[in-house]
TrEMBL record:
Residues 12-148 form the Mycothiol-dependent maleylpyruvate isomerase metal-binding domain. It comes from Plantactinospora sonchi. GO terms for molecular function: isomerase activity. Keywords: Isomerase. NCBIfam families: maleylpyruvate isomerase family mycothiol-dependent enzyme. The keyword Isomerase applies. SUPFAM superfamilies: DinB/YfiT-like putative metalloenzymes. This is Maleylpyruvate isomerase family mycothiol-dependent enzyme. The keyword S-adenosyl-L-methionine does not apply.
Length: 263
């Protein structure tokens, strides 16, 4: 787990450096542009990332010191403070809060990275550092895309993050998938992704879940792994779909977009 934690922390660092370089150049008008998250402008995405950095750091600090994990009252106070900021405050606050979180991850020695357990507040029990950091990377990398795509329609999720986040997708589906979008239709697809290569099943029924690939699937979806991450999180609209994305069988790519509306 320590090796995975090292990789995730390195991806958090490179992601921060890349996004910070962009954010430092944004003016007031840029900060109020629509982002790839349909209901948020860029400054609101930065507010979400900045407040999330504060809450993640508070959880990590509690784990390291043996103190109580932050509760919902703490979280609400953080959100309220960030909600009161103007767009420039969101940008400046993000740069500071996310830097401090990444630096704290980086400061942990190998033994601590292996043994510390972090209470994130919404899971049944504390998790190892690799899991906690990877959940932050999932949030960060996708919202980084939300900001970058506002300026570059061909933006992709950071390549160093993609292989680390693939196994997070199955966990997310229970939160974000909407099986009712298929109006009762059911299907089992084989999903083949590349860069990196993986093959697995996607079961669409009363629940949406990842499975082993079926021997006789109803259809098949093929795409880059990066595109699969964005599809599963509601970020693969027609304007941002790369070449090589195909879906065959009883459901279409548009059907899958409705099943995965995003967050």
């Amino acid at each position: 787990m320590a090796v995975i934690a090292d990789q995730v922390i390195a991806a958090l660092r490179s992601g921060h450096d890349e996004l910070a370089a962009l954010v430092r150049d944004l003016g007031p008008t840029d900060l109020t542009r629509p982002s790839g998250a349909s209901e948020w402008q860029i400054s609101q995405v930065l507010s979400h990332l900045g407040s999330g950095a504060e809450i993640n750091q508070a959880s990590l600090t509690a784990a390291l010191t043996g103190g109580p994990a932050p509760d919902q009252d703490f979280n609400r106070s953080v959100w309220a403070r960030w909600d009161a900021m103007d767009p420039t405050g969101h940008a400046e606050g993000f740069l500071d809060a996310n830097r401090r979180l990444v630096e704290q991850y980086e400061s942990l020695d190998a033994a601590t990275r292996e043994t510390v357990r972090v209470d994130l507040g919404f899971l049944p029990e504390p998790v190892d550092l690799a899991t906690a950091a990877r959940m932050r990377l999932s949030e960060f990398a996708l919202h980084e895309w939300d900001i970058e795509v506002s300026f570059n329609p061909y933006a992709t999720v950071a390549p160093e993050a993609v292989p680390l986040l693939l196994e997070q997708v199955g966990f997310l589906l229970g939160w974000v998938a909407r099986p009712d979008a298929l109006d009762g239709r059911r299907a089992e697809l084989t999903v083949r992704v590349h860069d990196p290569e993986q093959t697995f099943g996607l079961r669409l029924g009363e629940r949406v879940e990842l499975t082993e690939a079926a021997d006789q699937p109803d259809g098949e979806a093929t795409m880059p792994a990066e595109a699969w991450l964005r599809l599963a999180t509601g970020r693969l609209g027609p304007a941002h779909t790369p070449d090589g994305v195909t879906v065959t069988g009883p459901v279409s790519l548009d059907d899958l977009r409705r099943v995965f509306p995003g967050y």
